[in-house]
Structures are given as structure tokens and as C-alpha cells.
Amino acid sequence: MAVHSPPLTADRESTPPHRRIAVIGAGVMGLSIAHALRLRGHGVTVVADRSATDSVSGVAAAIWFPYRSGSSPLLASWLRRSKERFERLAADDACGIDLRAGTVVERDEHADRSWAAAVADPREAPAEALPPGAVAGLRATVPVISMPHYLAWLNRRCEELGVRFDRRTITSVGELEGEADLAVVAAGMRSGDLLDDPTPYPVRGQVVRLPNPGLTEWITDEDNPAGITYVVPRRDDVVCGGTADVGSYAAEPDPATEQAILERATALVPALRGLPVLSRAVGLRPARNTIRLEPVEGHPLPVIACYGHGGAGVTLSWGCAETVCDLVPAQGAA
Ligand SMILES: Cc1cc2nc3c(=O)[nH]c(=O)nc-3n(C[C@H](O)[C@H](O)[C@H](O)COP(=O)(O)OP(=O)(O)OC[C@H]3O[C@@H](n4cnc5c(N)ncnc54)[C@H](O)[C@@H]3O)c2cc1C
């Protein structure tokens, strides 16, 4: 069901001003950018050494929410544009997106509620729905993106559109000279290595996945003094988190941390108690104080950087992809 994109045409990339563009990165950001560029008629190759499911994107739950996203003057616009796109995609069951109500628990009476400007139905959570220590809570309906389904769909969709995939490691953007007219660096945590930028840093997240006992509502308790806690019911499981270890590169799940996550999650959502663990995972959120989305000078070919989305790469993906497209210079320009 083509609810989201125009019909394919055979030779979009043959007519100027379309370009040959290499997108470094096959995570949610790289794939969204590739999809958007291809729909604008560019010839697109995704160059990556890991598939989306094997990258941080495969660890995200994911809910549409700007958690630890880094700042940008365009943040509100990216949030809104991405949410609108996810809402449209939710009409196609194959995308793995559901619009679900849930609660953001607040433990500070001055909690930042700016995110709620992008949702249609923000409302106060009833006190009885909040855990001890909460001062308030905001309920809203947002897209819940079941990443295993969604990433498979997005990959497939890119292939259908004619995006090419090239599995390899890039050590320098200059390697792409001659192959592409322009490179987009959407390589998550490793983008800084490619662009001599030391500012990205990891915010390690550990999750544990349980069978879904029939839950539909999500809940997040970011400022729980015992540790960030969230429960996100997806199509086939429930993702329980988490951790936000700034600067940690530890790649393996820690059993004691998992036990603590389960205790906090079951305190928040008692229906999870006693469920068997389906799987566990760790991902390094690619954080940066400001999201970097801009042209970058000083390389043998034009480069656009798109990274530093922290805990909100899925949430911002479509909005950022559109901005990348807007930054592609017209043919003949520098
Ligand atoms: C526990 C956890 C929960 C999260 N929950 C949410 C959530 O609910 N909502 C949300 O919006 N976000 C969430 N996030 C954040 C989200 O996962 C990230 O922001 C997002 O996945 C980043 O996507 P990316 O495409 O930039 O990077 P990645 O997914 O890391 O992809 C990077 C890609 O670049 C490639 N690459 C890197 N360097 C090179 C190189 N030199 N050569 C070739 N290829 C290269 C890799 O192979 C990979 O394909 C969560 C993250 C974690 C860890």
C-alpha cells in the first residue's frame, strides 16, 4: 500500500540536476536520507560496514521522543516533520509503526514540556497513574516504531527505489572521490572519525526485551533516582530500559544492570513481573552537544554531515533527511 511515496520511475537519476550521492551509514539516519534523496531523483549508494539491525538503530525501541537529542535551531521542525511522516506511515501495517498513548513521568516541577508542542493530545496524567516521587506526568499519543519491522521495511523500500548498497568500511571520505559527486556522513558515533570532529560522545544504553503480555501503553521515567526507566511495548515484545552512561563504550550487557532494570521496570509496570527474558542489547547513543547537519569543507568532494542525534535519531530521522536533501547543491554549483 503506497501511502507514503510516489510511484517509481525508471530513470530518475539520468536527468540533471540529479547527482551521484554516497551516504555513509546504513542506520536509521543513513537509510532515511537515502530514501529521501532517491525520491528527489538522485542516484544513491549507501556505503556501510554494518546493516541497520546490527547498528545502534537496531537497539532503539523506539518511541518518538526527543531524548538527549542535542540542540539545534531546527529541532522543533525536525520533530514535527518526522512525527507527521511516521503518522502517515502508520497507515501501512508493514512499516511496523503504531500510534500509542503513554506517559512521561516528571520528577521536577519545571520539567521541559516543549516536546509536547508537536503532539495533538497532551494532557495531565492522573496522580494515581504515577510512581512514588513523581510530581506530575504528561500523557500523549506518539508513534511507537517497532525497529525490527521498521528497519526491514525501510531497507526494502530503499531497494525498491533503486538505492544501491555497498558493504565496506570507509577510512576517509576522500575514498569516495570519483565514485560520487557528494558524500553524506551519517555514520552515527563514528562520524567524528571521518570528519576530524572529536566532539561526539557515547551515551551507553542497555535494554532487556520481554514478551508482550498485551501492553499497549508506553511509560518513561527519565529522572528516576535509581536510574532512567522506560517500558515500550512493541509489536512482538516489550523493551525495558535502561541506562544513560555518558562516555561509556562498554559493549556487553551487564547482568547486574539488567537485574536492576527489570526491578525498576516491573515496579513501574507490574504486568511485566516474572516474564522470561527474550533478548538483551547495548547501544551507544551517538551524542553531541549540537546536532551536526551542515555542509563540510576541506574534502576532495562536497560533504554534508548528519550526526549527533543522541537518543533521538529515530525521532528526528525524516526531518533531518529532508534538510540533507535541501542542502544538496544544484548541479554546476560548487
Ligand atoms: C538503548 C537505546 C534506546 C534508544 N531509544 C530510542 C528511541 O526510543 N527513540 C529514538 O528516536 N532514538 C532512540 N535511540 C537512539 C537511536 O538509536 C540513535 O540516535 C540512532 O539509531 C542513530 O542512528 P544513526 O543512523 O545515526 O547511527 P547508527 O545506527 O549507529 O548507524 C551507523 C551506520 O554507519 C555505519 N558506519 C559508521 N562508520 C562507518 C565507516 N567508517 N565506514 C562504513 N560504515 C560506517 C555503520 O556500519 C552503520 O551502518 C536509542 C538508542 C539506544 C542505544
Automatic annotation (TrEMBL):
Keywords: FAD, Flavoprotein, Oxidoreductase. GO terms for biological process: D-amino acid catabolic process. It comes from Nocardiopsis mwathae. This is D-amino-acid oxidase. The keyword DNA-binding does not apply. FAD binds at D49, R50, G310, G311, A312, G313, V314, T315. Pfam families: DAO. InterPro entries: DAO, FAD-dep_OxRdtase. GO terms for molecular function: D-amino-acid oxidase activity; FAD binding. GO terms for cellular component: cytoplasm. D-dopa binds at Y230, R285, G311. Its EC number is 1.4.3.3. Belongs to the DAMOX/DASOX family.
